[in-house]
Design brief:
The protein is built from nine helices and no strands. By secondary structure, the protein is an all-alpha fold.
Length: 282
């Protein structure tokens, strides 16, 4: 009986341990399969991650062409703004510039020709007076400029008193001064007229812009910008013309002042020279 119970106990243990071993083997196989599947999945993931690197990257899109603007020359730029500013008022402004420059250039040429070396002229007259008054007058006739003309008038009255000579030189000096200032009033007129015409074009351009706004019954930037652009172009053109002519005008005035100062100083020297000769009885 004891042996039978022992055999039954051993058989029960074997029967109990066999399913456990089988289950353990199955668990080990399952774990191994899971590990293999995980390794395969990671390998797939790694290959999938590495795959995009091997794929050729798409080419970068071509750069858009850079917009190029045509560079206008100075002549073309002036022509463009002249047309945009309106031919009517821009034509009047251009006429002011042309006439003002013509008068200014004429005055500059005249004043340069009127400039005289008064010291050299006085020396020539003093040396010629030793030969007589007619010789001194001939020196004045051969010398251009208002100073020589004034000296000629003074020598023509050299036989008179000191006051008569001084009065003759002063009177003829006023005549020569008026010749030097000839045309300056017209230049000053064009200096004042050019910006006025520009401002008139400005006002008319603004009126045109508001008329277009009223017709469109709306405020549109393009409508307003067109009229304002015309207004500003005419204004700038008038101011540029006035500035150019003002520079010439001031240069001419400074040139006239220099010539007049030389005339006054040289006239005083001539009067003193003639007065001394009269005192010496020559």
């Amino acid at each position: 009986m004891k042996n039978l119970f022992a055999l039954l106990a051993i058989a029960g243990l074997v029967m109990f341990a066999a399913p456990q071993a089988a289950m353990a083997q199955e668990d080990a196989a399952t774990e191994m399969a899971a590990d293999m599947s995980a390794e395969s999945d990671s390998a797939v993931v790694d290959s999938a991650a590495a795959a995009p690197a091997a794929v050729e990257e798409p080419a970068a899109p071509a750069a858009e062409p850079v917009e190029t603007r045509e560079v206008l020359s100075f002549h073309q730029t002036v022509k463009k703004y002249f047309i945009e500013g309106g031919a009517t008022f821009m034509a009047f402004v251009l006429i002011c510039l042309i006439l003002g420059l013509a008068l200014s250039i004429e005055r500059i040429i005249y004043l340069n020709m009127a400039t005289t070396n008064t010291g050299k002229l006085l020396e020539g007259i003093e040396g010629a007076l030793g030969k007589g008054t007619d010789a001194a007058k001939e020196v004045c006739r051969n010398t251009r400029g208002p100073v020589a003309s004034i000296f000629y008038q003074g020598l023509d009255r050299s036989s008179g008193s000191y006051e008569e000579v001084a009065k003759a030189i002063e009177d003829y000096g006023s005549v020569e001064m008026s010749k030097l200032e000839r045309g300056l009033s017209w230049i000053s007129l064009f200096i004042a007229l050019a910006p006025m015409l520009g401002f008139m074009g400005t006002v008319i351009g603004m009126i045109s812009a508001f008329d277009k706004i009223a017709e469109a019954n709306t405020i549109n930037a393009s409508i307003v910008a067109g009229g304002i652009k015309v207004a500003l172009i005419t204004t700038v053109s008038g101011l540029i013309v006035a500035i150019i002519l003002q520079i010439f005008y001031n240069y001419i005035l400074s040139k006239i002042d220099s010539i007049v100062l030389d005339m006054e100083e040289a006239s005083m020297d001539l009067v003193d020279l003639l007065y001394k000769r009269n005192l010496e009885g020559k």
